[in-house]
């Protein structure tokens, strides 16, 4: 059981129904973060790994045991929690910028053109060009790992657009330029640090501690939130990777992983329909992989109805009805719950206190229970965030420390394209000088006589010997000289083609 809170009776989420996803909603300051912590601790105690983003910097305290402060003791007594004990939980800290946790990286290829178009804020035409950039890179056997690779590939295609036009279609200079400008903007926002290797191994998220508790993975997102589209796309990419890599398992006794998506509205703000459709499909299908998604947002209207309909377990904190839009949100939230004859749901939503919520979960048959008005349990871990020294100590004690901290920069599109450009700038090697023709005054030996005295000449730094043989007429001499020059030129050209072909095979195979 994953305990949530208590009214007349305790209320919990059934482990076998936890992968039916959920929603934590409510206005700022009503207790969403506390609910998030309580659910994360409940899943961890059950041995289920958790991932969450720490936007305000106040979730790091999960790694330390809580203290029985007066307010906490008062809540414990109010709820009659006779067996409550403070506790700490195993935590892995992550940070896209590598400052407050293990560096969390992805490669350009893994992110893909659809999500990158979202990050770069490209229109439909520009997104189509970016798709062609990925296609040409794949066909050419060029790896796109970091922003340098993508910039080099875009420049290469822009400089040689006429060569690609017949096979791949027209790629306008304006679209190429727009992509390049947006890549520079993304680099300034920290994209150069985020894209690279070693990329995240999703198995590292799905760990348990020595005591059998599921590891709580906390992503430091206070700085990442300054670029909200990158934040939303990064979390969506993580979900997509789990969906693509985890096997189908059906309904399990408990989830394999639980994912909390805080500030979920950022995922859908101004999102193109193709991306919204992908998210809906992902939410609908990923539960069969044993992954539960819990969206955390201020207003249920932040989520599309198609996604909202997939969320079976719901915790609704207070909403304020100050404007017509707020009143509509309250009414919508009330209508999504199964009614309870004990109280009016719509009125209760505006009357809830801090730490109080309306809760409905799925029963063993998958049917939503009538909504209950409950007080959320207090967390067992520490409310205060870790100090920089405590966080640093926790990071260095992690079994992952040292792996993601060492950046890898292997040969990819940027290095290969630069190498090819350098090769084209090297001037072609001239053919070696030919042997000077004999003068007319020199006596010609008779046929089948002993060869004339040997002459020496230098060819490629090696001392060679030549013998005069049958006399040649002037036309024969000219033809012979041309033949030697042509043979030397052909030999050099074939050699270059062979070398280039071998490199192409190696790179393509890589």
The level 1 CATH classification of the largest domain is: Alpha Beta
Cα gyration radius (Å): 34 Å
Instruction: Return residue spans where pLDDT drops below 50 for at least 5 consecutive residues.
Output: 448-479, 481-510
Oligomerization: single chain
Shape: globular
By CATH, the topology of the largest domain is Rossmann fold
What is the CATH-assigned architecture of the largest domain?
Answer: 3-Layer(aba) Sandwich
- Distance from first to last alpha carbon: 48 Å
Give the helices and strands, then pairings:
Layout: E1 2-6, E2 10-13, E3 22-25, H1 32-45, E4 50-54, H2 70-79, E5 91-95, E6 102-103, H3 108-120, H4 124-139, H5 147-159, H6 161-168, H7 173-194, E7 216-220, H8 228-245, E8 257-262, H9 265-268, H10 273-285, E9 291-297, H11 305-308, E10 313-316, H12 324-335, H13 345-351, E11 356-360, E12 372-376, H14 388-397, H15 413-425, E13 455-459, E14 462-466, H16 474-509
Parallel strand pairs: 3-9, 3-10, 4-7, 4-8, 5-6, 5-7, 8-9
Antiparallel strand pairs: 1-2, 1-12, 10-11, 11-12, 13-14
Helix pairs in contact: 3-4, 3-8, 4-7, 5-7, 5-15, 12-13
């Amino acid at each position: 059981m994953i305990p949530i809170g208590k009214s007349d009776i305790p209320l919990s989420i059934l482990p076998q129904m936890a992968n039916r996803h959920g929603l934590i909603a409510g206005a700022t300051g009503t207790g969403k973060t506390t609910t998030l912590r309580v659910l994360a601790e409940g899943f961890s105690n059950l041995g289920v790994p958790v991932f969450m983003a720490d936007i305000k910097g106040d979730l790091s305290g999960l790694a330390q045991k809580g203290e029985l402060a007066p307010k906490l003791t008062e809540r414990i007594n109010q709820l009659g929690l006779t067996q409550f004990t403070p506790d700490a939980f195993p935590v892995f800290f992550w940070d896209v910028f590598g400052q407050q946790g293990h560096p969390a990286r992805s490669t350009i290829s893994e992110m893909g053109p659809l999500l990158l178009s979202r990050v770069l804020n490209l229109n439909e035409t520009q997104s189509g060009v970016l798709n062609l950039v990925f296609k040409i890179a794949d066909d050419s056997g060029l790896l796109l790992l970091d922003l340098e690779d993508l910039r080099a590939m875009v420049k290469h295609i822009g400089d040689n657009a006429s060569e690609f036009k017949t096979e791949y279609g027209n790629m306008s200079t304006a679209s190429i330029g727009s992509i390049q400008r947006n890549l520079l903007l993304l680099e300034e926002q920290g994209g150069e640090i985020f894209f690279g290797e070693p990329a995240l191994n999703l198995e590292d998220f799905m760990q348990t501690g020595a005591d059998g508790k599921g590891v709580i993975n906390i992503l430091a997102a206070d700085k990442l939130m300054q670029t909200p589209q990158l934040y939303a796309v990064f979390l969506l990419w993580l979900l997509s990777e789990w969906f693509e890599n985890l096997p189908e398992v059906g309904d399990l006794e408990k989830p394999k992983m639980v994912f909390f998506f805080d500030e979920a509205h950022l995922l859908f703000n101004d999102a193109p329909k193709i991306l919204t459709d992908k998210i809906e499909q992902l939410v609908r299908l990923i539960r069969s992989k044993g992954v539960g998604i819990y969206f955390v947002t201020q207003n249920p209207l932040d989520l599309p109805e198609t996604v909202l309909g997939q969320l079976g377990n719901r915790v609704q904190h207070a909403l304020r009805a100050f404007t017509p839009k707020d009143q509509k949100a309250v009414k919508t939230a009330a209508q999504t719950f199964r009614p309870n004859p004990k109280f009016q749901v719509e009125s209760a939503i505006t009357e809830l206190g801090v730490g109080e919520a309306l809760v409905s979960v799925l029963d063993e048959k998958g049917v939503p229970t009538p909504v209950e008005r409950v007080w959320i349990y207090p967390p067992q871990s520490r409310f205060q965030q870790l100090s920089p020294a405590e966080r640093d100590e926790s990071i260095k004690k992690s079994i992952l420390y040292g792996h993601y901290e060492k950046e890898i920069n292997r040969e990819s599109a940027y290095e290969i394209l630069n190498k090819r450009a350098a090769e084209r700038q090297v001037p072609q090697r001239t053919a070696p000088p030919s042997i000077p023709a004999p003068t007319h005054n020199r006596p010609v030996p008779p046929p089948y006589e002993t060869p004339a005295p040997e002459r020496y000449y230098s060819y490629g730094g090696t001392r060679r010997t030549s013998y005069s043989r049958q006399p040649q007429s002037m036309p024969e001499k000219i033809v012979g000289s041309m033949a030697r020059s042509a043979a030397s030129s052909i030999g050099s050209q074939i050699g270059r083609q062979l070398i280039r072909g071998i490199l192409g095979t190696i790179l393509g195979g890589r």
